[in-house]
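Subject: for your reference before the review

Hello V.,

The reviewers asked for a structural picture of the protein, and I figured it would be easier to keep everything in one thread rather than splitting it across files. Below is the amino acid sequence we used in the manuscript, unchanged from the supplementary table.
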Amino acid sequence: MPRKLRIRAAGKPAVVIHRSAIQRDRVVYIAVANKPSKYPHGRSRIVYIGTTKAGASRIAASAAGKARELLGLHGVTHLEFHVLSCLPRQKVQTWRKMERGLLLCFRERLGEIPKCNRQGKRMKWRDELKYFTEARLRSIVERYS
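And here is what came back from the structure prediction:
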């Protein structure tokens, strides 16, 4: 008779979802690695900035979909996904404005967009500063870097 298979349980949870992730559907999320990545003007732990209309379910799907790419970066063993939201305005997709503002601030500070972002390489400021202060966008980039 063959030997019984042994079950191994990971010591840490694979995904942790906090209440803040489900309070709003339209949010921006930032993937933060355990190790800083090199950029032309410095280092940052931010490896991805994304947006979603579907809330926590999209963040979990994005984490699963990008896991190979993000965890494939040298020295990265785990990722944290942080959720950012803001109050809505009529006829304005404020979560998209926030994502653009964060990508632009990140690029200005570090010389290029986060490692795993595809869009934003040639992005220019539009009306993002009409909705968010540059200092606040910069402070968020600094906080997670």
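For the response letter, the relevant points are probably these. The beta strands are 27-39, 42-52, 79-84. The chain has a mean pLDDT of 87.

Happy to draft the paragraph if you're swamped.

O.
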